[in-house]
Design a protein that fits this description.
- The protein is of the alpha+beta class.
- 22% of the residues lie in helices and 26% in strands.
- The protein has a four-stranded antiparallel β-sheet with strand order 2-3-1-4, with no helix packed on it.
- Strand 6, helix 4 and strand 7 form a beta-alpha-beta unit.
- It has two domains: 94 residues, Alpha-Beta Plaits, CATH 3.30.70; 108 residues, Met-10+ protein-like domains (GMP Synthetase, Chain A, domain 3).
- It has five helices and ten strands.
- It is elongated.
- InterPro entries: MeTrfase_TRM5/TYW2, SAM-dependent_MTases_sf, TRM5/TYW2-like_N.
Length: 223
Amino acid sequence: LLCRTDVTLCALRVEASKISIIQRKVRLEKYLFKNLGRIKSISNAEDPKQKLLLFDPNLVKEDSTELKAQIEAMIREHAGDTDLLWELRTIPIAFDDWDLRRILKAVLPKELDFSSYSQAGHIVHVNLRENLLPFKKVIGQILLEKVGKCRTVVNKIDGITNEYRNFELDLLAGEDNYVTEVIEGGVRYKLDFSKVFWNSRLSHEHERVVKMFDSRSLGAFSI
């Protein structure tokens, strides 16, 4: 999946020897660019004696004269009389730089919001609302590439209507392989996700119920 864009932002060139005190003393967090993959708010400059402070392009713009002066004053208050030089930097952001939340927000229409997913072994399971279904393949591919150990992404396409509490699955991305392994309470289970109901979010509830039983209890919870 390709997702590449260029971002132009304001960067402030500072002396590398001053970075430590700037990080400790100067409250710049709300203005700085939020770390994104390999792109950090404090980056190396071409000159090893200098560093670059990268700023959020939505807050610090090329014509933000007053704010830039305020930032310079904040730095000099703690770092002393030091050379500061503003410049514009265009940074390429590739797919690997985006985290899951940001890339989904970038590719989906603004009015749509992907909420969450569950994982059972190598299988990632989602329950997409109807308005997200036109984008299900894109969502599936992103989850496949961004969620650790994921090899299969499925969407539940109907409700639980039978005594075994399983449901029909729609393969969105990855392998057509529903036999997986999960670990809960120190026990490893091997199961066919298409035939067995499994919800990792119930692990704490399982633990709570198990503590109510004694060693003579029978049934699934006795495992």
